Amino acid sequence: MSPAVRSPLPGEAAALDSVDDPVFAGGVVGPGLALRPPTGRRLDVLAPVTGTIVKTTPHAFVVRADDGAAVLVHLGIDTVALRGQGFEAVARQGERVDAGQVVCRWDPSGALDSGLDVVSPVVVLEPVGAAIEPAFPVPSAVGAGDALFTII
């Protein structure tokens, strides 16, 4: 079994099928959980696993763990429309990170002001066909850096 995938944000963890986006909700991207972060303040967004950042955009990033698993953190739904506003990169693509290390900072208020949903999927992209086991009953409150789920 893989090490725990950690929560990149504080908030309320919920089932992925509760996300108001058919691609995430339908599991097309992969299995995972959704986080509804607190609003009204800028948040540090943490690496969910130890590994290498293989893809980064202002609103999303992928970390490939040392065991080969690839985990996507997607900050909000349709937040690509913000064109980077409200996001601040801290780590770069190709950089090695430890689980719990700050990858970027995000102020969700800009997304809310634009009428966007701030729910943030945390999804296993690889291995294809993987499943997850939540670390707690869902829905539940979670702190940044807390165990979120394991990949099975």
From TrEMBL:
<dbReference type="InterPro" id="IPR050890">
    <property type="entry name" value="PTS_EIIA_component"/>
</dbReference>
<dbReference type="GO" id="GO:0016301">
    <property type="term" value="F:kinase activity"/>
</dbReference>
<keyword id="KW-0813">Transport</keyword>
<dbReference type="InterPro" id="IPR001127">
    <property type="entry name" value="PTS_EIIA_1_perm"/>
</dbReference>
<keyword id="KW-0808">Transferase</keyword>
<dbReference type="Pfam" id="PF00358">
    <property type="entry name" value="PTS_EIIA_1"/>
</dbReference>
<protein>
    <submittedName>
        <fullName>PTS glucose transporter subunit IIA</fullName>
    </submittedName>
</protein>
<dbReference type="InterPro" id="IPR011055">
    <property type="entry name" value="Dup_hybrid_motif"/>
</dbReference>
<keyword id="KW-0598">Phosphotransferase system</keyword>
<dbReference type="GO" id="GO:0009401">
    <property type="term" value="P:phosphoenolpyruvate-dependent sugar phosphotransferase system"/>
</dbReference>
<dbReference type="GO" id="GO:0005737">
    <property type="term" value="C:cytoplasm"/>
</dbReference>
<feature type="domain" description="PTS EIIA type-1">
    <location>
        <begin position="21"/>
        <end position="126"/>
    </location>
</feature>
<keyword id="KW-0762">Sugar transport</keyword>
<keyword id="KW-0418">Kinase</keyword>
